[in-house]
Structure formats: structure tokens, C-alpha cells
Amino acid sequence: FVEKREGWLRGFHRRFWQGSTDHRGVPGDPGRVVTLVPLAESTDATEQDHMATWGIVYRVAAARVPAVIEYLQFREKGGYTQLEFPIYASPDPTDGEEPFVKCALVYYANTSNPEYLGYAPPEDIAKHILRSHGPSGPNVEYFLRLAHTLEQHTIRDSHIEAILFHVTRLQQAEGLVDR
Questions:
Q1: Ordered alpha helix ranges (H), 105-177
Q2: Which of 6, 28, 40, 49 is the one with CA 20 to 30 A from 179?
Q3: What is the model's pLDDT at position 40?
């Protein structure tokens, strides 16, 4: 990549509501991975949640775009659709800020795709993540990597934090991590 920058996609929350039968699960026993959920459909949001989703935006050299798109098409093949959205430096839609990226390629799994799992309580999602494993490795590895990245960047996400609480509690109960 040529440039890497933090930014906010306004109007969506990150949720572990997408199934994965090709990376973090298998057919008949999907893992759970993140997708973007429009705020209107994100019924589990809390007051601490932003009205946007934080992430990292990559600018790719023009010569590399075809190879990167090919890689992403493979990686995001399980029910994701390409959409383009503006990316902002701030999560606040009332600040009048112009987007620093006018048209970022974003992969989005809507409710009509066959791998969409939808809402579940955080404890159920944690149990699902802990038992799932696919060709790309354990589902919990994917989850913990995301949780760690958000923590490193001091991004609060009540959905991820609630799942992490249950993942940690369940791992402690099984003696998999120290108390």
C-alpha cells in the first residue's frame, strides 16, 4: 500500500453477525466474522457507541489495484458485496467535515446473503467463536486480533467489548487463560 490512515465510516456499526464457511468455519458449522450493520438495524447499540465505525483505510498504488481486488474478492467471497462510501476523520456527522476519502471500497454483507447469521446475545456469539475453526484458523484468533487492534487504537466498541468479556470468562472457566 502507498498510504495507511485511520478513519470513520459513518452510519454503520461493526457486528459479528456474518457467517464464515470459507475462512473461520466450515459448511454446516460457520464461524462468525464481522460485517457492517446500518445504524437503523443495529438494535443492540449502547450510548457509548459512535454513530460510525472506525477502521484503517489503505491507498493502493494504481498498478497494484487489480491484484488487491482479486485478493479481496477471494477473501470476502462468503456473502460480501462491494460498495463505495466516503471516509471521515471524525465519527460525528454534525461536524460539517468533508470526507478525506470520497469513495472508499468497502465490503458489506447484507441480510439477504446466505451466510448472514444476524443478531445473537454476546455470550452466544462468544461460545460460537470459541468453538469455530476453519481453513484460515480458529475463529477466536480472528476475534482476539480485532479486539486487540481496537484496544491499541483506543477505540471503544461495546459489541466487541461484550463479546470479549464472555470469551475471556469462558476461556478462564476452561483453564485456557489465567484469571
A1: 122-131, 139-152, 158-173
A2: 49
A3: 82
Q: Per-residue pLDDT tens for 42-93?
A: 777 766 567 889 999 999 999 999 999 999 988 888 788 899 999 999 888 7
User: Is residue 141 annotated as a catalytic residue, yes or no?
Assistant: no
Helix (DSSP H) and strand (DSSP E) numbers for the chain: 4, 8
Which of 3, 41, 47, 76 is the catalytic position? 76
C-alpha pair distances (Å), 126 with each of 27, 111, 130: 19, 21, 6
pTM: 0.88
Residue 174 has a pLDDT of 87
Instruction: Tell me the CA distances in angstroms from 36 to 60, 147, 170, 174, one per residue in order.
Output: 22, 16, 26, 31
* Grid cell at residue 166: 464472555
Nearest to 10 by CA among 43, 47, 30, 36: 36
